[in-house]
Task: inverse folding
């Protein structure tokens, strides 16, 4: 089992930046993809950014050019968010899809709140 711990959320003004970190704890087998989803009140959870084992990246259209996802190592992934907008306000969740010896497991963190407001 993996445990995901997010950090770095907060309250910022429009145009400012934040970095979200996701620490992966536990015995890791093969991470197929790791990334971030977000959910605003009244909305469905949506994919923000994802990075695969081959290090290809995928972004939501609304964040392209402003957000960047990267893995520092096997256990630490981060999302650099620049030029934040009020519509980026949401709870952000770290997500991992893992192959544990042929069994696919999905994991979620508890979430970290990002609020963008003037």
Result:
């Amino acid at each position: 089992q993996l445990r995901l711990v997010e950090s770095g959320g907060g309250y910022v003004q429009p145009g400012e930046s934040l970095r979200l970190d996701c620490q992966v704890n536990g015995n890791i087998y093969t991470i197929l993809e790791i990334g971030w989803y977000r959910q605003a009140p009244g909305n469905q959870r949506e994919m923000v950014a994802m990075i695969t084992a081959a290090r290809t990246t995928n972004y939501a259209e609304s964040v392209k050019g402003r957000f960047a996802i990267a893995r520092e190592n096997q256990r630490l992934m981060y999302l650099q968010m620049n030029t934040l907008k009020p519509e980026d306000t949401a709870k952000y969740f770290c997500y991992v899809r893992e192959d544990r010896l042929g069994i696919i497991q999905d994991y979620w963190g508890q979430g970290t709140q990002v609020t963008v407001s003037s």
Notes: The chain has no helices and eleven strands. Residues 7 and 20 are 6 Å apart (CA to CA).
